[in-house]
Model the fold of this input.
Amino acid sequence: MALRDRFSKKLTCPQCGNSGFAEASENDDPKRKHPGFNVDHLPRGFFIQRASNHQETSMIKCECGRKFPFRSLAEAAAERH
Done:
């Protein structure tokens, strides 16, 4: 069984400002096609809109109704440089 990287990310709703820290994990093996991304805990007021194997396509929904990706494409690009 592969090890999982665990990390925290601060979520902030761009519409109402609701914020808090989410706990997430994904497989540690960079050669895997699907990293098996999973949100393990969301702060109060946030919900999973659409689960996905990738951070950029996992959608979060705030209690105000705003939907946004767990991790934006710009964040992903910034980490690759």
